[in-house]
Specification:
Blueprint: H1 3-23, H2 25-37, E1 47-51, H3 57-64, E2 68-73, H4 76-86, E3 91-94, E4 108-114, H5 123-133, E5 134-145, H6 147-151, E6 163-171, E7 174-182, H7 185-193, E8 196-202, H8 208-213, H9 215-223, E9 227-234
Parallel strand pairs: 1-2, 1-4, 2-3, 4-5
Antiparallel strand pairs: 5-9, 6-7, 8-9
Helix pairs in contact: 1-4
Length: 240
């Protein structure tokens, strides 16, 4: 992940902490219900890495499920927000997922990464690290932008490219540049398959609550998916 992502999410940290977790239906009534549905209802005795924790919503849910949680984010302000949210109930660190991770081999039973990986250009080293730090049979659950949605923002018009894009988000009357990498579906799946077996692919649909609160956006999402979710299991040993 580059410094622009860190700077962007330092700017967004207050908004995430106080607004996104409760006021964004794309999170609360779209992505999160689908992700949580793919997790066991009991994670006691499981060590879980929340890889890209933002303001700590998933960190808190994982704690409630009984997991021993380690949370990381590239943004120091997001790390502080997560610490405020969960106190000492989780270990929280400022870490770049694009670098070598400071964890021993076979440390975690699960890695959860919500809407983070599209900020990383090359997934190969990140997924290699994820495989290394997962226990045998460990699970990876991640959500990312849906490639069909991202292609609408493409400037080069080449669907098959790994393209750097700068989106514009309006927050509190200000426009904030949000950089990320668009990639085709085959790249998402094939990069995952190098180190993992894919168990499920979900294109989530918004909830009925979303429909009641935002009917027009609901109809758009039912025809044009914004996110996709992949659940995968670690292949073999760390040297595969």
């Amino acid at each position: 992940m580059n410094n622009r992502v860190k700077e962007t999410y330092n700017q967004l940290a207050d908004d995430y902490e106080h607004n996104v977790d409760t006021n964004s239906p794309f999170n609360t009534q779209y992505e999160r219900p689908a992700m949580m549905n793919l997790l066991p209802s009991d994670l006691r005795n499981n060590k879980v890495l929340d890889a890209g924790c933002a303001a700590g919503w998933y960190t808190k849910q994982l704690i409630h499920l009984g997991a021993v949680v380690t949370a990381t984010d590239i943004s120091p302000k997001m790390v502080e927000a997560t610490k405020r949210r969960v106190g000492e109930a989780a270990s929280v660190f400022c870490i770049d997922l694009g670098e070598k991770l400071p964890f021993e081999d076979e440390t975690f039973d699960w890695i959860i990464s919500s809407l983070v990986l599209h900020y990383i250009k090359d997934w190969s080293s990140t997924f290699k690290e994820f495989q290394r730090i997962l226990n045998p049979g460990g699970k990876l659950l991640f959500s990312v932008h849906h490639p069909f949605m991202d292609f609408k923002l493409s400037e080069n018009g080449d669907y098959f490219s790994n393209e750097f894009i700068i989106d514009q988000w309006e927050r509190e009357g200000k426009m904030i540049e949000v950089p990320f990498y668009r990639r085709p579906l085959q790249m998402i799946l094939n990069d995952t398959l190098v180190h993992f077996f894919i168990e499920q692919i979900i294109e989530p649909q918004p909830t009925e609550e979303f429909k009641m609160n935002e009917p027009e956006k609901y109809e758009r999402l039912m025809k044009n998916p914004h996110f996709m979710i992949v659940k995968a299991i670690k292949k073999g040993n760390t040297r595969d």
